[in-house]
Amino acid sequence: MIKIINSKRNAFKISNLKFGYYLGFRILILGFLLLPSAASAALIIQAPKYIGLNSGLVGYWSFDGKDMAGVTAYDRSGNANNGTL
Fold this sequence. Notes:
Elements: E1 2-6, E2 11-14, E3 17-22, E4 25-30, H1 41-45, E5 68-69, E6 72-73, E7 83-84
Antiparallel strand pairs: 1-2, 2-3, 3-4, 5-6, 6-7
């Protein structure tokens, strides 16, 4: 659906995608995630499945809060590669 929002500012709207000019600046506001037209509703709703970054991970140290004790940085990767600073 295309509709004019405010003809004085030359703005128009296509669904949730807004274009226009305000104080001389071109504005584009995305109100939704752009997906391929072939994406089904089930595909859009399901949670994304990310490939983990922990494959081959040697150690993960956040250097923050409970991961620190004195001069020891605890390894959160599960490999027990704690470090001493």
